[in-house]
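Most newcomers find our protein records easier to grasp once they have seen one. Read left to right, the backbone structure tokens trace the chain's path through space. Nothing more is needed to start thinking about how sequence determines fold. An example says more than a description, so a record of this kind follows:
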Amino acid sequence: MGMEHSSPKIMMSFNLSFLEIILCLSMATIFAAIIGLDRKEHNHPAGLRTHILVCLGACILALIQESNLQSSSILCEEFPHFIDGT
């Protein structure tokens, strides 16, 4: 009775559709443009372009974190012995 290792196939899926990703990035761009235009109008530093780049970067990082969270929860369900150490 040796220790048998089965290698189940784990499918890492990202549940957000392409349309949802585009919608998130579009909304980040629109809101950043509103803030950036207001700052540009009042002659503040960090105007339109800067706010759009920062908001898009933050949105992309949030989408990546969401993907990692979903992947890790799938791993925890498939391999609970890694969590409890048995």
Notes: The chain is about 70% helix and 0% strand. The two ends are 18 Å apart (CA to CA). Helices lie at 18-41, 48-78, 81-84.
